[in-house]
Amino acid sequence: MYFRDEEGTRQMEKKREHVRKPDWLKIKISNSESFKAVKNNLRENRLHTVCEEAKCPNIQECFGDRKTATFMILGDICTRACRFCAVTTGAPTHLDLGEPKRVADSVAAMGLRHVVITAVARDDLDDGGSQVFANTVNAIRYRMPQTTVEVLPSDMKGDYDSLKTLLDAKPDIFNHNIETVRRLTPSVRHRATYDRSLELLQRVKDMEPDLPTKSSIMVGLGETREELLETMDDLLAHGVEILTIGQYLQPSKKHYPVDRYYDPREFRELKRIARKKGFIHCESGPMVRSSYHADEQVNAAAKQRRLDAEKAQN
Q1: CA angle 285, 291, 295 (to 5 degrees)
Q2: CA 131 centroid distance within chain
Q3: Integer distance in angstroms from the first to the last C-alpha of the chain?
Q4: Which of 134, 153, 169 is nearest to 72 (CA)?
Q5: Tens digits of per-residue pLDDT, 108-162?
Q6: Average pLDDT of 225-231?
Q7: Could you count the other beta carbons within 10 Å of the beta carbon of residue 253?
Q8: What are the counts of helices (DSSP H) followed by strands (DSSP E) for the chain?
Q9: pLDDT per residue over 1-40, tens digit each?
Q10: How far, in Å, CA of 18 to CA of 258, rounded?
Q11: Please, which residues have CB within 8 angstroms of residue 111's CB and are 6 or more apart in sequence?
Q12: Per-residue pLDDT at 309 exceeds 50
């Protein structure tokens, strides 16, 4: 096996910084009325979205065309410093106990049929913020009974009492991102571990066997094809049914560098492989992020459950 010396590593980092962004990653800027209406609603309710904080490339489509948003609760300061993420890192402020109601009010005002609730990592809290997560799900259920709710929490430091608190709120989909392959996890994800993420996803299935689970992989960090396929197999072995695959985009020069950009044909091939392996739904593309077309994914999961039930009866 070949190992780079210090100078070789510096040269590789310099090369990565100058990897040219391809044409298919150009983003169309929109300033439609629906886009502005969503942003105004969020500002009026003093709410954060991962769409804005993490500089999601799909914000124009989701805010402007689909009129959807992924709410980020528990503040906008994360206790972790993952090298791929643009969310601010530091010491969080006090808990805002009025946040769940304001999220529910915004969901109602926007008439959302499916909503994703994520959060910054709150390692400073004994329960990792799970009670506020549960309160937010319950508040949405009260205001909008027909709205389906997806939750996207951190690993909660492996505290499964906290996980139960969240699951007791009965979300419609549980999402937790593996983010990258096993080998790259220590250098990309701060305080998180590959195996703890897999264990969390398995615990969800153990506690709530009928709850669809979902995860996401970024590509372009230096992983190999074999490592990607191994990660898919690991997720399937731990009960994950829905997978999203997207291109990693470096938020700033201080973040983890892009190793390469996958082309659309490669993403189509990864989707084909994922479906063949057994995922019931897979979104795969350069701009795909964990919450991309999440409303379609919950419908796909429900349809597959109906088909499975019909097969079991026959």
Answers
A1: 100
A2: 20
A3: 53
A4: 153
A5: 988 888 889 999 899 999 999 999 999 999 999 999 998 989 999 999 889 999 9
A6: 98
A7: 7
A8: 12, 8
A9: 333 344 444 444 444 445 778 877 766 655 656 556 666 6
A10: 9
A11: 67
A12: yes
Place of tokens 């996803």: 201
Residue 221 tokens, joined: 């960090």
Residue 174 amino acid letter:
F
Assess contact for 270 and 227: CB atoms under 8 A: no
Spell out the SS3 assignment of 217-280: EEECCCCCHHHHHHHHHHHHHCCCCEEEEEECCCCCCCCCCCCCCCCHHHHHHHHHHHHHHCCC
Q: Is the separation of the CB atoms in 276 and 268 below 8 Å?
A: no
Model pTM score: 0.82
Bridge partner residues of 303 (DSSP)? none
Report the C-alpha gap between 11 and 4 in whole angstroms: 10
DSSP 69-87: -EEEES-S-BS---TT--S
Interacting residues of 52 by C-beta distance below 8 A, sequence separation 6+: 59
**CA pair distance 53, 45, nearest whole angstrom:** 16
The neighbour count for residue 24, using CB atoms within 10 Å, is 14
